[in-house]
């Protein structure tokens, strides 16, 4: 297998995932309440064995899962991705006790995870976070402050929380903690957002944590965050590619059968060229995502740059493709409940979360100049 092609077994697995999404997951997604954790959907992802694969698969497999699910059921894709994002730090940096307690429950869909990095004043600039971890005894801290824009909050069962243990130290003074939702002093509220998946705020009022709750080592939490984001950024791109492909599929079907001006829409050169451009951009983004994921899996150089490029290109591409699809469908695509109306709402957020497009460009430039200096 190269970065530019998939093996027959991988293609068959993607087709199987799309079938499962249509038959088993989409009906459950339809019964969910917008803005709330759909625990039945999470449990079904666990029963199908997809959540356990989050901890046994590489980056490319994660991308194939996310792309395949997104093409059919974005709610299922997002539920799976949020389990991975919240629990990946436990899998890679947790203690044996932390892993034993939480990963089996995440894998079977019995526990909902969340990744709590962003704050009201520290979104894209993650190193500027201010949630304070004040020393409390010989091996403990009290967390005081806020988190905001946290997916699955306030309904998650545990949070991977990043807090400042050393003031004034920037990225070097951040520690990652595993914080169960029932800790005293931890409260939260839901936010009414454009995106249909749950997002909320968390308030920490002297929440107690100890050395047993640390993920990794003290003051090395920024590495935990970046390790997680380097894995998940290409897969955000895969989510975007899945949405772009769904929009392209719908547009091909619509323009092939829609009568207009004595023929069908596809007979109009202006339409055909737009569809060709949509396909070109979607395939380009897919190849960038696969290349970035393969680089991660093989330990190649330049993973942060490749991950940022994949996330940037794919999310911007999906925005373009879905917008073009809506335009070519006309007013019907804006009707509540239309697949493209749903995609139009879903496609906007990925250009912001896990590092906005502007942040990705900054990472790319930084890595390019770093390579120049190393020569």
TrEMBL record:
Q: Which domain of life is it from?
A: Bacteria
Keywords attached to this entry: FAD, Flavoprotein, Oxidoreductase
| Coiled-coil portions | none
Q: List required co-factors.
A: FAD
Domain annotation Acyl-CoA oxidase/dehydrogenase middle: ranges: 114-205
Give the matching Pfam families.
Answer: Acyl-CoA_dh_1 (PF00441), Acyl-CoA_dh_M (PF02770), Acyl-CoA_dh_N (PF02771)
Q: Which family does it belong to?
A: Belongs to the acyl-CoA dehydrogenase family.
Q: What is the protein's name according to its record?
A: Alkylation response protein AidB-like acyl-CoA dehydrogenase
Domain Acyl-CoA dehydrogenase/oxidase C-terminal, residue spans: 220-368
Using the record's annotation, list all stretches that form the Acyl-CoA dehydrogenase/oxidase N-terminal domain: 9-109
Q: Which PROSITE patterns match?
A: ACYL_COA_DH_1
Q: Which GO terms describe its molecular function?
A: acyl-CoA dehydrogenase activity; flavin adenine dinucleotide binding
Could you tell me which species this protein originates from? Streptomyces capillispiralis
């Amino acid at each position: 297998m190269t970065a530019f092609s998939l093996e027959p077994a991988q293609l068959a697995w993607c087709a199987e995932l799309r079938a499962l999404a249509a038959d088993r997951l989409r009906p459950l997604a339809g019964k969910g309440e917008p803005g709330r954790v759909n625990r039945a959907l999470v449990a079904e992802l666990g029963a199908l064995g997809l959540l356990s694969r989050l901890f046994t698969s590489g980056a490319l497999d994660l991308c194939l899962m996310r792309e395949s699910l997104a093409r059919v059921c974005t709610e299922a894709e997002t539920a799976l991705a949020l389990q991975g994002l919240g629990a990946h730090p436990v899998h890679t940096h947790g203690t044996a006790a932390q892993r034993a307690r939480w990963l089996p429950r995440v894998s079977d869909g019995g526990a909902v995870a969340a990744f709590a990095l962003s704050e009201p004043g520290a979104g894209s600039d993650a190193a500027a976070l201010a949630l304070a971890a004040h020393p409390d005894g010989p091996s403990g801290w009290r967390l005081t402050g806020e988190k905001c824009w946290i997916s699955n909050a306030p309904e998650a069962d545990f949070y991977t929380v990043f807090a400042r243990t050393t003031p004034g130290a920037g990225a070097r003074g951040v520690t990652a903690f595993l914080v169960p939702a029932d800790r005293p002093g931890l409260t939260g509220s839901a936010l009414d957002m454009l995106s249909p998946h749950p997002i909320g705020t968390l308030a920490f009022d002297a929440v107690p944590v100890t050395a047993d709750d640390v993920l990794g080592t003290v003051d090395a939490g920024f590495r935990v965050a970046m390790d997680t984001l380097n894995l998940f950024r290409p897969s955000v791109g895969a989510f975007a590619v899945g949405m772009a492909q769904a929009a392209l599929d719908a547009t091909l079907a619509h323009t092939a059968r829609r009568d207009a001006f004595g023929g069908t829409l596809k007979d109009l050169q202006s339409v055909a060229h737009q569809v060709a451009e949509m396909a070109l951009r979607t395939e380009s983004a897919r190849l960038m995502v696969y290349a970035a994921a393969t680089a991660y899996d093989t330990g190649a150089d330049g993973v942060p740059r490749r991950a940022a490029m994949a996330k940037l290109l794919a999310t911007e591409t999906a925005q373009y493709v879905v917008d073009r699809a809506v335009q070519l469908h006309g007013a019907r695509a804006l009707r509540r409940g239309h697949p493209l109306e749903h995609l139009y709402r879903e496609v906007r957020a990925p250009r912001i979360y896990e590092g906005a497009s502007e942040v990705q460009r900054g990472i790319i430039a930084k890595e390019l100049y770093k390579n120049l200096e190393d020569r």
